[in-house]
Design goal:
Blueprint (H helix, E strand, L loop, with lengths): L7 H68 L1 H64 L5 H18 L1
Amino acid sequence: MDKLGINPVALLWQLVAFSLLVFGLYKLLYKPVLRMLDERAERIRKGMEDAAKAREMAERAQEEFEKRIAEARKEGQEIVAQATQMSEKLRQEILEQARAEAERMIAKERERLTQEREQAMSELRAQVADLSILVAQKIVGVSLDEAAQRKLIADFLREAGDLK
């Protein structure tokens, strides 16, 4: 293999170093990110369940409204007209309240999820920056001063953000 310009010992060490790098990235980055995504999916599922519960409450209010109309018909034509007007108004108010509550809950959940996503992204950026510094030091074998490293990382993250 020396005739081909390949040093088997150096090749072996490069394979070992690369394997350690891949293993380290898997343990330090891949698993935590998957765990974070699973937690976020669970929060989203919970938010959807809450919205479904609010929808069920609106349906129950609709059913209650229909029962009241049936009772009012039994009492007579005159009472039916008055009860229908009042119950229609009540139904509209209940539905408006239920819609407003559901919209408020959905908006609140969306805002919370957006904040969590932004927080997770900033944490991820910080972890990537720290990990990049460590990897660069290991690979290059020399250490830049911390200010230069932070500037390089900030430039990289800004360019990565522009690629979105």
